[in-house]
């Protein structure tokens, strides 16, 4: 009955090495444990919301609450897809894709994090590619955005490798100081110009009204 009422629980994105899907409660606890062990060096500050600077238990709790909030506040007019990243059942991290007025704007914003022990192995690029395949090839997005601190070399590298281009800057306040991020945009045309490893998407048809409303139909 849960999967009938919440078809997003059936959605999965499969790459050659990874599976992206909504976690069940046990898997969510495993993802929280990954965050508790750390997702960056202590001196780094990769996110505007400084949740990763909190103690391990607070980081783990943040992962739980963020996932529950994304589910609880979902609406076709403003949604946030939050998926666990798994390799052979092992929890590696999480990715997110959010949008507002998607049916009109056709624009998404992506986010991600991986456990420190899983970084540097290409999983971040592979997971982001899966999200973008969903957005461009199946949900008919026209562009994808990401906002990255200028000194976040890892995320900058993933974005540019995938074809994102500069789209201005964003100024915010972090711990009472101004921080500047690069805003990067990937267009549908740029996405279509590159060949990539295949992404298999399962369980999408029943989810389409959640992304656009009842008039939605699958294409791509």
TrEMBL record:
Top EC class, one word: transferase
EC number: 2.3.-.-
A Pfam family that the UniProt record links to this protein: Acetyltransf_3
Top-rank lineage group of the source organism: Bacteria
Ranges for domain N-acetyltransferase: 18-187
GO terms of molecular function: acyltransferase activity
Recorded coiled-coil stretches: none
Record key words, sorted: Acyltransferase, Transferase
PANTHER family: RIBOSOMAL-PROTEIN-SERINE ACETYLTRANSFERASE
Protein name as catalogued: GNAT family N-acetyltransferase
Species annotation: Deinococcus hohokamensis
């Amino acid at each position: 009955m849960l999967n009938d009422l919440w078809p997003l629980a059936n959605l999965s994105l499969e790459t050659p090495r990874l599976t992206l899907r909504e976690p069940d409660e046990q898997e969510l606890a495993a993802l929280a444990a990954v965050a508790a062990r750390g997702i960056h060096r202590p001196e780094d500050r990769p996110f505007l919301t400084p949740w990763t600077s909190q103690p391990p238990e607070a980081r783990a709790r943040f992962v739980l609450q963020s996932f529950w909030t994304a589910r609880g506040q979902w609406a076709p007019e403003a949604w946030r897809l939050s998926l666990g990243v798994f390799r052979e059942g092992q929890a590696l991290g999480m990715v997110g894709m959010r949008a507002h007025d998607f049916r009109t704007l056709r624009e998404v914003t992506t986010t991600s994090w991986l456990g420190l022990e899983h970084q540097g192995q290409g999983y971040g690029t592979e997971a982001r590619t899966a999200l973008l395949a969903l957005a461009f090839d199946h949900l008919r997005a026209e562009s994808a955005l990401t906002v990255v601190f200028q000194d976040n070399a890892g995320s900058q590298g993933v974005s540019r490798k995938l074809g994102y281009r500069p789209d201005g800057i964003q100024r915010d306040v972090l711990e009472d100081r101004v921080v500047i991020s690069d805003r990067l945009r990937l267009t549908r045309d740029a996405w279509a110009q590159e060949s990539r490893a295949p992404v298999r998407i399962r369980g999408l048809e029943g989810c389409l009204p959640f992304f656009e409303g009842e008039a939605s139909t699958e294409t791509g």
